[in-house]
């Protein structure tokens, strides 16, 4: 099969994982188990608290590897990394749970979350309500919806009907996440995706600076889309923030929320690097 980009390949893998998940039992059972858990941590509240103090709100990522960069960190202890992030002012955590492409796991999310008191985003490729219930059961306080994963890769703009179908599917995931008390981060790469993201209710709009075709990151992506984000939504710049200058550029344009992985993962102590980048 010829893939339009890495995302389409990952989506195909996820469809197989979802089929296996569904074979294990019904959504209703998973959902009841998720509803019996203590309530999730307040992800959006943690971001707002930092912003209210005039501080950058950093969603600090825990990821062992990525398809574009390979292994980022050999010595990988999610609990220790979470503690370090918590001590150095992170607002929230993001933990990769995809195994095949990012070397992640549900166990890493559980270990990280129980080592600190920060709200945690399950960073994975969500396509089905089963994964949303599963996310809550592993402890997630927020899920990610990647708009590009719901668009037909072979028709660049997508017909009107396909766009409506994408919105219907995304709303299903969002509704279940909200019913389970979780927040939803909606990720976009361009203006067309942003239009679809704004059809959802969630205030959290992530602008991913990474081009999925070339893997190149350009902070311009955030700057271009920023003024198309309505004031009742919260813009998050994602990927490719590596230096204090990058942070200053974003802050200078009024961006207060950052999702950062690689820069922290490559540092000996990830939390110390967070304090250095954002201090
Ligand atoms: O490591 P970086 O360049 O700081 O990027 C972090 C985060 O934005 C990136 O991991 C990411 C953004 N969206 C995703 C979707 C799936 C997997 C990973 C991602």
UniProtKB/TrEMBL annotation:
Reaction(s) the record says it catalyses: 1-(2-carboxyphenylamino)-1-deoxy-D-ribulose 5-phosphate + H(+) = (1S,2R)-1-C-(indol-3-yl)glycerol 3-phosphate + CO2 + H2O
Entry superkingdom: Bacteria
Enzyme Commission number: 4.1.1.48
SUPFAM superfamilies linked to this entry: Ribulose-phoshate binding barrel
InterPro entries linked to this entry: Aldolase_TIM (IPR013785), Indole-3-glycerol_P_synth (IPR045186), Indole-3-glycerol_P_synth_dom (IPR013798), Indole-3-GlycerolPSynthase_CS (IPR001468), RibuloseP-bd_barrel (IPR011060)
Stretches assigned to the Indole-3-glycerol phosphate synthase domain: 7-276
HAMAP family per record: IGPS_B (MF_00134_B)
PANTHER family linked to this entry: INDOLE-3-GLYCEROL-PHOSPHATE SYNTHASE, TRYPTOPHAN BIOSYNTHESIS PROTEIN
Protein name: Indole-3-glycerol phosphate synthase
Source organism: Nitrosospira multiformis (strain ATCC 25196 / NCIMB 11849 / C 71)
């Amino acid at each position: 099969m010829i893939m339009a980009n890495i995302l389409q390949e990952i989506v195909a893998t996820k469809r197989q994982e979802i089929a296996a998940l569904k074979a294990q039992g019904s959504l209703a059972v998973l959902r009841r188990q998720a509803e019996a858990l203590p309530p999730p941590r307040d992800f959006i509240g943690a971001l707002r608290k930092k912003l209210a103090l005039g501080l950058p709100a950093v969603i600090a990522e825990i990821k062992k590897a990525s398809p574009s960069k390979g292994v980022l960190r050999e010595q990988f202890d999610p609990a220790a990394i979470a503690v370090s992030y918590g001590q150095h002012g992170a607002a929230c955590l993001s933990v990769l749970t995809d195994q095949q492409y990012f070397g992640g796991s549900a166990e890493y999310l559980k270990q990280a979350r129980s080592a600190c008191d920060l709200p945690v985003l399950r960073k994975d490729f969500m396509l089905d309500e089963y994964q949303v219930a599963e996310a809550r059961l592993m402890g997630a306080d927020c899920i990610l919806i990647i708009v590009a994963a719901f668009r037909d890769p072979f028709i660049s703009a997508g017909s009107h009907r396909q766009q409506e179908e994408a919105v219907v599917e995304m709303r299903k995931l969002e509704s279940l996440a909200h019913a389970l008390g979780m927040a939803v981060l909606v990720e976009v790469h361009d203006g067309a995706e942003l239009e679809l993201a704004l059809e959802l209710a969630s205030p959290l709009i992530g602008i991913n600076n990474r081009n999925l075709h070339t893997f190149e990151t350009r902070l311009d992506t955030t700057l271009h889309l920023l003024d198309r984000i309505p004031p009742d939504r919260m813009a998050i710049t994602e990927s490719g923030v590596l230096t204090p200058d990058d942070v200053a550029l974003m802050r200078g344009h009024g961006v207060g929320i950052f999702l950062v992985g690689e820069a922290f993962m490559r540092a000996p102590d990830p939390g110390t690097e967070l304090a250095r980048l954002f201090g």
